[in-house]
Amino acid sequence: MAKRIVILGGGTGGTLTANRLSKHYGDDVEVTVVDRDDDHVYQPGLLFVPFGLADPDDIVRPRQRQLKKGVAFHRAGIDHVDIDGDEVHLVDGTVLPYDLLVVATGARLLPDETEGLTGPGWGEKVFTFYDLAGATALHDALERFEGGRVVVNVVDLPIKCPVAPLEFSFLADWYFHDRGLRDRVELTYVTPLDGAFTKPTASRTLGGMLDEKGVELVTEFNTGEVDGEGGRLVSYDEREVPFDLAVVIPLHGGAEYVDRSPGLGDELGFVPTDQHTLQSKVRPNIFAIGDATNVPASKAGSVTHFEGEVLLRNIIRFLDGEELDASYDGHANCFIETGFHKAMLIDFNYDTEPVGGHFPAGVGMPLLQDSRLNHLGKLMFQWVYWHVLLPGRDIPGIRPDMPTSGKELASH
Amino acid sequence: MTTTTIAGQAVDRNDEGFFEHPEQWTEDVAVEIAKEEGIDELTPEHWQVIHFMRKEYVEKGTGPTVRVLGKTSGVSVKELYQLFPKGPAKVAAKIAGIPKPRGCI
Ligand SMILES: Cc1cc2nc3c(=O)[nH]c(=O)nc-3n(C[C@H](O)[C@H](O)[C@H](O)COP(=O)(O)OP(=O)(O)OC[C@H]3O[C@@H](n4cnc5c(N)ncnc54)[C@H](O)[C@@H]3O)c2cc1C
């Protein structure tokens, strides 16, 4: 009998894994993808929606159409996984037995876990752009905005695409310039970190860029409460940041069914996963990819893509009873939109922080420095996403492990 | 790295004040480091958090973040800030004698 592979989640990771498996095995395995809806959102596009730079309709496509022909798509919510019985129980009552399970249900926004965040003012002067409804509502609010204090607040990590809130600040600076309002807008970036970003070199560069653009930086701020009515963020250590408009990136956790599946996830609902093989630590026949894992890599589409190749190899090896390949190195590659038609590029992995130089080699896109070429790269990424990433192709000239040639690495 | 003698015990700490060798920790050392951090008396709630941090470190190789502490230590995030006003994860890690909790990226 053909082996049954069930993939939970039909987003970036689920789709590219299903397509890679289908290409490799044809009909020799049964691949089923489960997702609760049929709207595949190109999430990097959410950054542009608030500024009218992307139309909500243009960044959503039907999920099923991104899947190759042989892949079955089951549309239903997931109720729980029985990791001892090797079965997935769906909300519609269906039970899917599996030989191998891939968890690709991403990360979930948890705005309710921050006091006051979804209380009075939510959707009026407190917003997030991390989902489509939020990004669209924020667009309307920005259009109406005529001046005042705008704060961008990251409540806590991990979050998807940790550079996106910085990009939002840069684009807001540009947007208000363009509307001739910039001198009437105070922009503040409020973060729990001790700098603009997690990695020291990039943090200095990005911090400098906030400064250049006149965005005030408030660090080590652990948001305990968002008071929409009073217009203030309050930290646990009782500092306050006032606002007229707050853009908040809520806490993230894993999908809620993970909490209902004994043994599957950690305290935050992420699946404990080997950071080099992508096999889960909970059962050998459960693998995980993308934002759903607890690996110490960025929660990013590029990470998901690079993981995809190692994951495919390891599923094949696992089904063949061979030893797994421990070669995923945490490679991440992010364009950082900096406004005024420019962008910056960072490239890093578990061991190497983002540094300057060029990508993928000595001649190429400048790293850790903004340029028009990188901005075009960022725009191209949407095409690459639908036509290269999701179909499970490799990007020509770009391998899953991080390139070192072209990088300004300190010698050891 | 600096080596100091605290409560009769040689302790190696990095520039930020985190332990290089968690095995050099004793409860007496913790009491002294708490004072350095402006906490004059460690209450039973402080000890609950400190022991929890050490247990997590031994099991997982890194100390928990404030959010995970709030979910799993039995002490809420709000109370954690009352106990360790300058930042529960970092200050409690210093007092518990474990390395700086690995943040997320
Ligand atoms: C604003 C923003 C900007 C970003 N910008 C970038 C960028 O520039 N570059 C980059 O590389 N990455 C970026 N990302 C991150 C990137 O989009 C994600 O890392 C990537 O999509 C993760 O893929 P995934 O498969 O893990 O999760 P997802 O693509 O989110 O897929 C998870 C799927 O699981 C389904 N699901 C969840 N729970 C259930 C359930 N109970 N039942 C059924 N189905 C369920 C969901 O419907 C969803 O389709 C950005 C993200 C955001 C929010």
Task: List low-confidence stretches of chain A.
Answer: none
Percent in strands of chain B: 5-15%
The pLDDT mean of chain A sits at 95
Strand order of the largest sheet of chain B: 1-2
Q: In the CATH scheme, what's the topology name of chain B?
A: Arc Repressor Mutant, subunit A
Shape designation of chain B = globular
- CATH homologous superfamily assignment of the largest domain in chain A: FAD/NAD(P)-binding domain
Largest sheet of chain B: 2 strands, antiparallel
> Which strands sit side by side, in order, in the main sheet of chain A?
5-2-1-9-20
User: Quick check: average pLDDT of chain B?
Assistant: 91
Describe the protein's architecture and organization.
The complex is a heterodimer of chains A (412) and B (105). Chain A contains seven helices and 24 strands. Chain A has 412 residues and is of the alpha/beta class. Chain A folds into three domains: 3-106 and 255-319, 3-Layer(bba) Sandwich (FAD/NAD(P)-binding domain), CATH 3.50.50; 111-252, FAD/NAD(P)-binding domain, CATH 3.50.50.60; 335-411, no CATH class. In chain A, the strands form eight sheets. A five-stranded parallel β-sheet of chain A has the order 5-2-1-9-20, with helices on one face. A five-stranded parallel β-sheet of chain A has the order 11-18-12-13-14. In chain A, helix 1 links the parallel strand 1 and strand 2. Chain B has one domain (2-96): Arc Repressor Mutant, subunit A. Chain B contains five helices and two strands; from the N terminus they run E-E-H-H-H-H-H. A two-stranded antiparallel sheet of chain B has the order 1-2. In chain B, strand 1 and strand 2 (9-13) form a beta hairpin. In chain B, helix 1 (27-36) crosses helix 5 (88-96) and helix 2 (44-60) crosses helix 5 (88-96). Chain B starts with a strand and ends in a 9-residue tail after the last helix. Classes of the chains: A alpha/beta (412), B mainly alpha (105). The interface between A and B is medium-sized, with 18 and 17 residues. The complex binds flavin-adenine dinucleotide. Flavin-adenine dinucleotide binds next to helix 1, strand 2, helix 6 and strand 21 of chain A.
